[in-house]
Amino acid sequence: MTPESRLAAIPGIRQDRLIAATYVELRETLCGYIRKRIGSPCDAEDLVQDIFARLLEYNTLLDERTVVPFVYAIARNRVVDYLRRHARSRAAADYFFLHARRATCDVEERIAAAELVTLEHTLCQRLPQRRAQIYTLCVHDGCTAEEAAATLHLSCRTVENHLFAARRQIRGALRNCI
How far is the C-alpha of 175 from the C-alpha of 89, rounded, in Å? Predict the structure, then answer.
């Protein structure tokens, strides 16, 4: 019996080879699958690595027929977890940002809030003129998209698109600063 055949007879070694072969075979496809759903190439790579690291930790016996559906089941669950976590962090950042203008108890918090408001105004000035108008009307003046559209003589969908782009741009810049 050769050393390789002895290793192949050990279930853990055989399973590790199966997982390694599956990784080589599915890595690009799985990365594309995840990237399409979350929109971030770097995070998609991280999730693929995490999926196969988790697969190596499972003590269940895998075979060639079950490994691919199992990998995609893990991928689907990881994508859902990622999107939930991302939505929660975005909601928390939005909440903090919207309430940063209010007075806080601590002096350091007041200074941080004032700096965020100043930074937000600076970022708003860097937006294209139309986008800055829409952002100011909707965020600072409290107008709805319909009201801003009527004021600026634009379609509601155009206002929503500009507002979405402005919020994404400002949120991203603020996230980098925080």
Answer: 10
pLDDT band at 59 (very low <50, low <70, confident <90, very high): low
Distances (CA, A) of 164 to 40, 59, 106, 118, 132: 18, 45, 32, 21, 12
How does pLDDT run across 144-167, given as a tens digit for each residue?
888 888 889 988 888 888 888 888
DSSP state, residue 100: T
Distance, CA of 94 to CA of 32 (rounded, Å): 29
CATH of domain 104-177: 1.10.10.10
Give me the architecture of the 3-91 domain, per CATH: Orthogonal Bundle (1.10)
Contact 170, 124 (CB under 8 A): yes
